[in-house]
Amino acid sequence: MQILDGNIVSKHLRAQVQEEVAQRKAAGKKIPHLAAILVGNDGASMTYVGAKEKDCHEVGFHSTVLRFDASITEAELIAEVEKINNNSEIDGLIVQLPLPKHINEKRITETISWEKDVDGFHPMNVGLMFKGLPCFLPATPFGIIKLIEHYQIETSGMHCVVIGRSDIVGKPMSAMMLQKNCTVTICHSKTKDLTSFTRNADIVIAALGIPGFLNGDMIKDGAIVIDVGITRVADATKKSGFALKGDADYESCATKAAWITPVPGGVGPMTRIALLLNTLHAVKA
Question: Which residues are tagged catalytic?
Fold first, then answer.
Protein backbone atom coordinates (compact mmCIF):
# COMPACT_ATOMS: atom_id res chain seq x y z
CA MET A 1 0.00 0.00 0.00
CA GLN A 2 1.25 3.45 -0.96
CA ILE A 3 0.06 6.86 0.19
CA LEU A 4 -1.33 9.48 -2.20
CA ASP A 5 0.12 12.34 -0.16
CA GLY A 6 -1.70 15.59 -0.86
CA ASN A 7 0.60 17.56 1.44
CA ILE A 8 3.69 16.65 -0.58
CA VAL A 9 2.08 17.21 -3.98
CA SER A 10 0.42 20.50 -3.01
CA LYS A 11 3.74 21.78 -1.63
CA HIS A 12 5.40 20.94 -4.96
CA LEU A 13 2.68 22.70 -6.97
CA ARG A 14 2.62 25.65 -4.57
CA ALA A 15 6.35 26.21 -5.21
CA GLN A 16 5.68 26.22 -8.96
CA VAL A 17 2.89 28.80 -8.57
CA GLN A 18 5.08 30.93 -6.32
CA GLU A 19 7.89 30.87 -8.89
CA GLU A 20 5.56 31.82 -11.74
CA VAL A 21 4.14 34.73 -9.73
CA ALA A 22 7.68 35.93 -8.96
CA GLN A 23 8.51 35.81 -12.68
CA ARG A 24 5.37 37.78 -13.52
CA LYS A 25 6.26 40.39 -10.92
CA ALA A 26 9.82 40.70 -12.24
CA ALA A 27 8.47 41.15 -15.77
CA GLY A 28 6.04 43.84 -14.66
CA LYS A 29 3.01 41.67 -15.40
CA LYS A 30 -0.25 41.63 -13.45
CA ILE A 31 -0.22 39.73 -10.15
CA PRO A 32 -3.21 37.40 -9.62
CA HIS A 33 -5.87 38.84 -7.33
CA LEU A 34 -8.43 36.60 -5.62
CA ALA A 35 -11.48 38.05 -3.88
CA ALA A 36 -13.65 36.16 -1.41
CA ILE A 37 -17.07 37.08 -0.06
CA LEU A 38 -17.94 35.85 3.41
CA VAL A 39 -21.49 36.27 4.71
CA GLY A 40 -22.18 35.80 8.41
CA ASN A 41 -19.91 34.32 11.07
CA ASP A 42 -20.06 30.56 10.49
CA GLY A 43 -16.94 29.14 12.15
CA ALA A 44 -16.05 26.65 9.41
CA SER A 45 -16.56 29.24 6.67
CA MET A 46 -14.36 31.75 8.49
CA THR A 47 -11.65 29.11 8.82
CA TYR A 48 -11.83 28.19 5.12
CA VAL A 49 -11.64 31.81 3.97
CA GLY A 50 -8.77 32.47 6.36
CA ALA A 51 -6.87 29.52 4.89
CA LYS A 52 -7.46 30.78 1.34
CA GLU A 53 -6.23 34.23 2.37
CA LYS A 54 -3.08 32.65 3.83
CA ASP A 55 -2.53 30.59 0.68
CA CYS A 56 -2.69 33.72 -1.48
CA HIS A 57 -0.18 35.51 0.73
CA GLU A 58 2.25 32.59 0.61
CA VAL A 59 2.39 32.39 -3.19
CA GLY A 60 2.41 36.14 -3.75
CA PHE A 61 -1.18 36.69 -4.89
CA HIS A 62 -3.18 39.76 -3.92
CA SER A 63 -6.26 38.88 -1.91
CA THR A 64 -9.37 40.71 -0.76
CA VAL A 65 -11.97 39.41 1.69
CA LEU A 66 -15.33 41.18 1.80
CA ARG A 67 -17.26 40.37 4.97
CA PHE A 68 -20.99 40.99 5.29
CA ASP A 69 -23.49 40.52 8.08
CA ALA A 70 -25.85 37.55 7.77
CA SER A 71 -28.72 40.01 7.44
CA ILE A 72 -27.56 41.20 4.00
CA THR A 73 -30.33 40.85 1.44
CA GLU A 74 -30.01 38.78 -1.71
CA ALA A 75 -30.28 41.93 -3.85
CA GLU A 76 -27.50 43.62 -1.87
CA LEU A 77 -25.24 40.58 -2.20
CA ILE A 78 -25.88 40.39 -5.96
CA ALA A 79 -24.90 44.06 -6.20
CA GLU A 80 -21.61 43.32 -4.40
CA VAL A 81 -20.88 40.41 -6.76
CA GLU A 82 -21.56 42.65 -9.76
CA LYS A 83 -19.09 45.23 -8.43
CA ILE A 84 -16.36 42.59 -8.43
CA ASN A 85 -17.43 41.32 -11.86
CA ASN A 86 -16.80 44.84 -13.17
CA ASN A 87 -13.52 45.36 -11.31
CA SER A 88 -10.67 44.64 -13.72
CA GLU A 89 -8.16 44.51 -10.84
CA ILE A 90 -9.75 41.30 -9.51
CA ASP A 91 -9.17 38.07 -11.45
CA GLY A 92 -11.07 35.50 -9.41
CA LEU A 93 -14.07 35.53 -7.08
CA ILE A 94 -15.37 32.97 -4.64
CA VAL A 95 -18.50 33.28 -2.54
CA GLN A 96 -18.07 31.09 0.52
CA LEU A 97 -20.92 28.63 1.00
CA PRO A 98 -23.24 28.00 2.75
CA LEU A 99 -25.14 31.27 2.59
CA PRO A 100 -27.99 32.28 4.92
CA LYS A 101 -31.28 30.54 4.11
CA HIS A 102 -32.94 33.68 2.75
CA ILE A 103 -30.37 33.86 -0.07
CA ASN A 104 -30.64 31.68 -3.17
CA GLU A 105 -27.16 30.12 -3.57
CA LYS A 106 -27.83 29.12 -7.17
CA ARG A 107 -28.72 32.70 -8.11
CA ILE A 108 -25.55 34.04 -6.46
CA THR A 109 -23.36 31.41 -8.15
CA GLU A 110 -24.83 32.27 -11.54
CA THR A 111 -24.32 35.99 -10.93
CA ILE A 112 -20.55 35.55 -10.67
CA SER A 113 -18.90 36.20 -14.03
CA TRP A 114 -17.94 32.80 -15.44
CA GLU A 115 -14.60 34.34 -16.39
CA LYS A 116 -13.89 34.99 -12.68
CA ASP A 117 -15.57 31.83 -11.38
CA VAL A 118 -12.44 30.14 -10.00
CA ASP A 119 -14.63 27.71 -8.00
CA GLY A 120 -15.86 26.30 -11.32
CA PHE A 121 -19.54 26.30 -10.32
CA HIS A 122 -21.00 28.59 -13.01
CA PRO A 123 -23.13 26.75 -15.62
CA MET A 124 -20.84 28.05 -18.38
CA ASN A 125 -17.78 26.46 -16.77
CA VAL A 126 -19.73 23.28 -16.02
CA GLY A 127 -20.78 23.03 -19.67
CA LEU A 128 -17.23 23.66 -20.93
CA MET A 129 -15.92 21.03 -18.51
CA PHE A 130 -18.32 18.38 -19.78
CA LYS A 131 -17.24 19.23 -23.34
CA GLY A 132 -13.59 18.89 -22.34
CA LEU A 133 -12.89 22.52 -23.28
CA PRO A 134 -10.69 25.02 -21.39
CA CYS A 135 -12.47 26.31 -18.29
CA PHE A 136 -12.24 26.65 -14.53
CA LEU A 137 -12.57 23.18 -13.01
CA PRO A 138 -14.18 22.62 -9.59
CA ALA A 139 -11.32 22.67 -7.11
CA THR A 140 -11.73 19.28 -5.41
CA PRO A 141 -12.02 17.14 -8.58
CA PHE A 142 -9.27 19.24 -10.22
CA GLY A 143 -7.03 18.64 -7.21
CA ILE A 144 -7.69 14.89 -7.37
CA ILE A 145 -6.72 14.83 -11.05
CA LYS A 146 -3.46 16.66 -10.24
CA LEU A 147 -2.78 14.14 -7.46
CA ILE A 148 -3.32 11.18 -9.80
CA GLU A 149 -1.12 12.76 -12.46
CA HIS A 150 1.70 13.49 -10.01
CA TYR A 151 1.92 9.83 -8.99
CA GLN A 152 1.64 8.79 -12.66
CA ILE A 153 -1.25 6.43 -11.98
CA GLU A 154 -2.53 4.82 -15.15
CA THR A 155 -6.23 5.50 -15.58
CA SER A 156 -6.88 4.51 -19.19
CA GLY A 157 -9.24 1.55 -19.35
CA MET A 158 -9.72 1.47 -15.58
CA HIS A 159 -13.14 1.09 -13.98
CA CYS A 160 -13.75 4.07 -11.69
CA VAL A 161 -16.63 4.12 -9.23
CA VAL A 162 -17.59 7.52 -7.84
CA ILE A 163 -19.74 7.35 -4.70
CA GLY A 164 -21.76 10.57 -4.53
CA ARG A 165 -23.48 12.72 -7.14
CA SER A 166 -23.10 16.27 -5.83
CA ASP A 167 -22.60 19.16 -8.23
CA ILE A 168 -19.41 20.10 -6.36
CA VAL A 169 -17.61 16.74 -6.44
CA GLY A 170 -19.47 13.66 -7.70
CA LYS A 171 -20.77 14.84 -11.07
CA PRO A 172 -17.68 16.80 -12.18
CA MET A 173 -15.40 14.06 -10.88
CA SER A 174 -17.16 11.49 -13.06
CA ALA A 175 -16.80 13.71 -16.13
CA MET A 176 -13.12 14.31 -15.50
CA MET A 177 -12.36 10.61 -14.94
CA LEU A 178 -14.23 9.87 -18.18
CA GLN A 179 -11.85 12.29 -19.90
CA LYS A 180 -8.98 10.33 -18.32
CA ASN A 181 -10.30 7.34 -20.32
CA CYS A 182 -11.86 5.53 -17.37
CA THR A 183 -15.09 3.57 -17.54
CA VAL A 184 -17.11 5.45 -14.92
CA THR A 185 -19.95 4.34 -12.67
CA ILE A 186 -21.71 6.80 -10.35
CA CYS A 187 -23.23 5.33 -7.20
CA HIS A 188 -25.46 7.18 -4.75
CA SER A 189 -28.07 6.77 -2.02
CA LYS A 190 -30.53 5.07 -4.38
CA THR A 191 -28.01 2.61 -5.85
CA LYS A 192 -28.99 -1.02 -5.24
CA ASP A 193 -26.22 -3.39 -4.09
CA LEU A 194 -23.57 -0.66 -4.11
CA THR A 195 -20.89 -3.12 -2.93
CA SER A 196 -21.21 -5.10 -6.16
CA PHE A 197 -19.94 -2.00 -7.98
CA THR A 198 -17.16 -1.02 -5.58
CA ARG A 199 -15.76 -4.58 -5.41
CA ASN A 200 -15.22 -4.52 -9.18
CA ALA A 201 -13.70 -1.03 -9.27
CA ASP A 202 -10.04 -0.30 -10.01
CA ILE A 203 -10.51 3.19 -8.58
CA VAL A 204 -13.02 4.15 -5.89
CA ILE A 205 -13.64 7.84 -5.18
CA ALA A 206 -15.72 8.24 -2.02
CA ALA A 207 -17.52 11.58 -1.78
CA LEU A 208 -20.73 11.06 0.17
CA GLY A 209 -20.00 12.62 3.57
CA ILE A 210 -20.56 9.54 5.74
CA PRO A 211 -17.52 8.77 7.93
CA GLY A 212 -16.11 5.26 7.49
CA PHE A 213 -18.74 4.24 4.93
CA LEU A 214 -16.31 2.47 2.57
CA ASN A 215 -14.57 -0.46 4.25
CA GLY A 216 -12.04 -3.04 3.17
CA ASP A 217 -14.71 -5.65 2.41
CA MET A 218 -16.15 -3.31 -0.23
CA ILE A 219 -13.00 -3.04 -2.37
CA LYS A 220 -10.87 -5.49 -4.29
CA ASP A 221 -7.17 -6.16 -3.74
CA GLY A 222 -5.03 -3.53 -5.46
CA ALA A 223 -7.76 -0.91 -5.72
CA ILE A 224 -6.99 2.82 -5.63
CA VAL A 225 -9.01 4.55 -2.90
CA ILE A 226 -9.49 8.33 -3.00
CA ASP A 227 -11.27 9.66 0.06
CA VAL A 228 -12.95 13.04 -0.39
CA GLY A 229 -14.85 13.00 2.90
CA ILE A 230 -13.78 14.96 5.96
CA THR A 231 -16.14 14.95 8.95
CA ARG A 232 -15.59 15.96 12.56
CA VAL A 233 -16.44 13.11 14.92
CA ALA A 234 -16.26 13.09 18.70
CA ASP A 235 -13.02 11.58 20.03
CA ALA A 236 -12.28 11.79 23.76
CA THR A 237 -8.64 10.76 23.17
CA LYS A 238 -7.96 13.97 21.23
CA LYS A 239 -7.09 17.21 22.98
CA SER A 240 -9.62 19.03 20.79
CA GLY A 241 -12.33 16.51 21.65
CA PHE A 242 -12.83 15.49 18.01
CA ALA A 243 -11.07 13.76 15.14
CA LEU A 244 -11.31 14.18 11.37
CA LYS A 245 -12.65 11.09 9.61
CA GLY A 246 -12.94 10.34 5.92
CA ASP A 247 -15.62 8.45 4.02
CA ALA A 248 -13.30 5.43 3.91
CA ASP A 249 -12.38 3.33 6.91
CA TYR A 250 -8.65 3.86 6.49
CA GLU A 251 -7.40 0.87 8.49
CA SER A 252 -9.47 -1.78 6.72
CA CYS A 253 -9.10 -0.25 3.23
CA ALA A 254 -5.33 0.19 3.60
CA THR A 255 -4.86 -3.57 4.02
CA LYS A 256 -6.14 -4.14 0.46
CA ALA A 257 -5.57 -0.91 -1.48
CA ALA A 258 -2.58 -0.33 -3.72
CA TRP A 259 -2.92 3.44 -3.22
CA ILE A 260 -4.95 5.41 -0.70
CA THR A 261 -5.38 9.04 0.38
CA PRO A 262 -5.13 9.79 4.11
CA VAL A 263 -7.57 12.06 5.97
CA PRO A 264 -6.42 14.67 6.68
CA GLY A 265 -3.54 15.31 4.28
CA GLY A 266 -4.92 13.73 1.12
CA VAL A 267 -7.54 15.49 -0.97
CA GLY A 268 -7.88 18.59 1.27
CA PRO A 269 -4.51 20.21 0.43
CA MET A 270 -5.11 19.48 -3.26
CA THR A 271 -8.42 21.38 -3.19
CA ARG A 272 -6.60 24.44 -1.85
CA ILE A 273 -3.83 24.35 -4.46
CA ALA A 274 -6.38 23.82 -7.25
CA LEU A 275 -8.03 27.13 -6.35
CA LEU A 276 -4.64 28.86 -6.68
CA LEU A 277 -4.04 27.18 -10.05
CA ASN A 278 -7.44 28.40 -11.26
CA THR A 279 -6.68 31.95 -10.11
CA LEU A 280 -3.31 31.91 -11.85
CA HIS A 281 -5.08 30.71 -15.02
CA ALA A 282 -7.59 33.56 -14.64
CA VAL A 283 -4.93 36.28 -14.78
CA LYS A 284 -3.48 34.74 -17.95
CA ALA A 285 -6.83 34.23 -19.70
Answer: 52, 96, 119
